[in-house]
C-alpha cells in the first residue's frame, strides 16, 4: 500500500518539527493509540487498538526515526505485531516546508500487512489506512495549531 499526501498546518516549521518529535502530541493525534513511549535515542514503542472490517486488533509497534534533517523532515519506520490478526510494517518520509507563514507537511507512506489482515482485501485495508491517516493529521493540525496560538491577554 502506498499513500502520498500534503497537509497545510497553520504553525511555523519549527513548531511542527517539535510536535512531530513530541511523544505526547503523537499519542494524542494517533487514533486508537494507548501509549507512545521513547525506548532509546530515536526509537519508540507504540501500542494501539484498531478495527479493520471484522478484525479488531491490538498492535505493539517498534518505531524508529532516521534520516533526521531538523527542521525539514525525517523518515519514520515501524513494524508491529497484532497477534492472531497479523502484522503491519512500513515507513513514511515526512518533509516540512515553509509556505506563507504556515508549514506544508508532505508525506509518502509505504506499508505492508500480513496474516488475517491481508486476507481482508486491499480495498478495505487501504480505506482504513487512509481514514486513520486523515484522522491523525486532522488531530495533529488541531494540537499544533492550539499550541501555536498566542495565549489570550490576562485581565488586569
What is the C-level CATH assignment?
Answer: Alpha Beta
How many structural domains does the protein architecture include?
A: 1
What portion of residues is helical? 25-40%
Low-confidence stretches: 150-156
Structural class: alpha+beta
Strand arrangement within the widest β-sheet reads 1-7-6-5-4-3-2
Q: CATH homologous superfamily name?
A: START domain
Quote the distance from N terminus to C terminus: 56 Å
Which value, in Å, is the CA radius of gyration? 16 Å
CATH hierarchy: architecture = 2-Layer Sandwich
Observed structural traits:
disordered C terminus, 7-stranded antiparallel β-sheet, single chain, 27% helix, alpha+beta, 156 residues, 3 helices, Alpha-D-Glucose-1,6-Bisphosphate, Chain A, domain 4, 7 strands
Topology readout:
Blueprint: E1 2-9, H1 13-20, H2 23-29, E2 33-40, E3 43-52, E4 55-69, E5 73-81, E6 87-99, E7 102-114, H3 122-148
Antiparallel strand pairs: 1-7, 2-3, 3-4, 4-5, 5-6, 6-7
Helix pairs in contact: 2-3
Question: Would you write up a description of this structure?
Answer:
The protein has one domain (2-147): Alpha-D-Glucose-1,6-Bisphosphate, Chain A, domain 4 (2-Layer Sandwich). It has three helices and seven strands; from the N terminus they run βααββββββα. It has helices spanning 13-20, 23-29, 122-148, and strands at 2-9, 33-40, 43-52, 55-69, 73-81, 87-99, 102-114. The chain has a seven-stranded antiparallel beta sheet with strand order 1-7-6-5-4-3-2, covered by helices on one side. Helix 2 (23-29) packs across helix 3. Mean pLDDT is 88; it is low at 150-156.
